[in-house]
Amino acid sequence: MGRFPKYWGMARSYRPVDRDQQFLMPPSLREWLPPGHLVWFVLDVVDRLDTSGFHARHPQGGPGRRAFDPDLLLGVLVYAYAVGERSSRRIESMCGEHVAFQVLCGRDVPDHTVISRFRAAHEDRFAEVFAQVLVLCAQAGMGKLGTVAIDGTKIAANASIFANRAEESLRAQAERIARQITDEAAAVDAAEDELYGEARGDELSPEFADPATRAAAIKAALAEIEAEKKKQAEEAAGEAERRTQSWQARAELGRERLAEAEHRAADRVAAWEAAQEAARTQHTPRPRGRRPVLDSVQIQRLRHQLATAERRAATAGPTPPTARGRSGTRKANLTDPQSRIMNTRTGWIQGYNAQLAVTTDHLILALMLTQAPTDIDCLEPMMEAAQAAAKSVDQARPGPAAEIGLIVADAGYCSEDNLTTPGPDRVIATAKDRELRASRDTDHASEPAPDASAVEKMRHRLRTPAGLAAYRQRGGIVEPVNAHLKDQVGLRRFSRRGLTAAASELNLAAAVVNLLKLHRHTTALAT
């Protein structure tokens, strides 16, 4: 706690004006709270963090009032998130009323604008805070890497779902606002010409601020739509290439199977003719059955499959948007253009998709915030992030070396690519949990075919007791952490807008989740 006693010293010099009341509060902040209170743990953790990046961007000198120490503001933010308070105005109020917050700030209450600007100015630093807290947890012996569960949870954006507008509507509004600004500017010019003549008048009146702000919001929403169109075009091109390669591979396999079938048919015909010749010349028994044919039904079917594969390889393209479930009308949100409409169990929300990788002792190992409403494209980057974090944990944690042995994920991540991409062993559900439970008693004695797809092999694995038991770990690992993040820390809705700002807030909230785990872990060890 080397950097914080200066604030306690400020508070120790404080004395109430009323001498009759001077002994109602202890003179030292150290006596305001019990020794095991969470505040002291937060102060100790912040003191152990490397906050040089915050100090470099947050100078305390210069003219005017001395700025707040970044360590103090970081400690206030961390404790506020730990008790489920994220509003800068509420945090300011708590710093003036709540004893724990008064201890944190040394009774020097920061304004809500100071807290808000600090959080915005250092949004790229909270990922470092998360990483450093993870290392502290590892040094305490936490972070069991045997099994890691990956899951996504939807978090609402600081925007209304009713603020979405279609692309055509946005372009019409942009044109209307542009005409309005032009017409109003022309009217102002005419009025000033009549009033001032050739002389220079004042600047344009401030009522143009709202239309300009509206125009900027519409411009940002249209830019997001254009970016989404570009992204979908790139995805379509990549999908077309993958589909072409897939059909080419099928065609190549079809050629091999057709050649093998034709070779076997030719061997059967040659054997039958040789037997017929031996019967005539050597009086051996004639072969039974009809004469084999070169163009059998099986060969005709293989030729048809090969022709289909070659035709699809030559004309392969991306799946039409309607077949993928995408609406033909593109929309963007005027409040937070980077947020997306997402489906949850309780209905549709305007928000983001938070991805978490969690260890068996409920430590958040890695995280990512994405605009994708589905999880299927998030497994590979999350596995890479989890493996990188696992190396840091393994280096910091005492004891023998360890690495991720198994990754479990639900059916939202199931695809051929996710099952075959390099990385740790993984168990990914091929159907919803209730369907897996219904199929657990089916026959799993027979092994899958050698040429079975990765999804078919995973489906067979989940029918085995070992595979189903491995997957059943997922809910107990990751679901409590999702609930902790949303209910105890209170991150059901982001406070800030934009993907970068929301990701920064997610990093801070995840760091607090791990810090609370560390606090309980060290408290349990002490007792």
Radius of gyration: 33 Å
What's the story with the biggest beta sheet? 6 strands, mixed
The poorly predicted ranges are 1-17, 199-209, 321-327
Which percent band covers the strand fraction?
A: 5-15%
Overall spatial form: elongated
Helix % is 55-70%
Counting structural domains, the number is 3
Total number of strands: 8
Gap between N and C termini: 22 Å
Number of helices, counting only DSSP H or I runs of 4 residues or more: 18
Overall pLDDT score: 79
Order of helices and strands: HHHHHHHHEEHHHEEEEHEHEHHHHH
Structure classification? alpha/beta
Summarize the structure.
This protein has 527 residues and is α/β, with parallel strands linked by helices. 55% of the residues lie in helices and 9% in strands.
Q: How would you characterize the overall build of this protein?
A:
The protein folds into 3 domains: 5-122, no CATH class; 133-160 and 338-515; 166-315, no CATH class. Strand 5 and strand 6 form a beta hairpin. The strands form 2 sheets. Strands 1, 4, 5, 6, 7 and 8 form a 6-stranded mixed sheet that branches. The protein has helices at 5-12, 38-48, 52-57, 70-82, 88-97, 99-105, 112-121, 126-139, 167-196, 209-282, 297-315, 379-396, 416-420, 433-438, 454-462, 465-471, 473-488, 499-526; strands spanning 147-156, 164-166, 331-333, 340-344, 347-359, 364-370, 406-409, 425-428. It contains 18 helices and 8 strands. It is α/β, with parallel strands linked by helices and 527 residues long. The model is unreliable at 1-17, 199-209 and 321-327 (pLDDT under 50). Helix 2 packs across helix 4 and helix 10 (209-282) packs antiparallel against helix 11 (297-315).
